[in-house]
Amino acid sequence: MQNLLKIFHWKTYSFTAIAVIGFSNIVVELFGETIPGVLMTFFKSAGEVVILGSVFVFAIAWLLKARPHNRPKNYHVVIFDVFGKESQIEGIRTEFKTHDVAWSFMKQYKALYPLYNFALVSKQPKHDKPTIFKYI
Questions:
Q1: 22, 65, 106, 110: which has the fewest C-beta neighbours closer than 10 Å?
Q2: The whole model's pTM is what?
Q3: Which among 122, 62, 64 has a CA at the least distance from the CA of 98?
Q4: CA atoms of 136 and 124, how far apart (whole Å)
Q5: Where are the alpha helices (DSSP H) in the chain?
Q6: Cβ partners under 8 Å of residue 123, min gap 6
Q7: pLDDT for 79-129, tens place per residue?
Q8: How far apart are CA 94 and CA 77, in angstroms?
């Protein structure tokens, strides 16, 4: 029994207890502060790179897509009757140089002639058929 008490005596394990306490402090420091700190700085920098990279990709895509368009130089107002057939109304202007003026006249014509429909069209150089811009 005496030998058994010597094995479990506190003086025998004091060096082991000090080593475990010292090692646990190192483990806590390593896994609690050092590794998370390194990983956080890495992922923070990586996140910044991903965000800036995506901003540049979208900016370049927008610049490539937003090239100047060829705007038509002449606009025509085409008149349709209630059956959808193209017709003519005497005394109204149908050719315009700007889109806004043609649109304004179309709205006025629609108020004056409610049984007719009006389309704002223009002939594009790349297309065979005229392009309809607005229809009321």
A1: 65
A2: 0.49
A3: 122
A4: 21
A5: 2-7, 10-29, 35-65, 99-112
A6: 72, 74, 130, 131
A7: 998 888 999 989 899 999 988 899 999 999 999 999 899 999 988 777 777
A8: 5
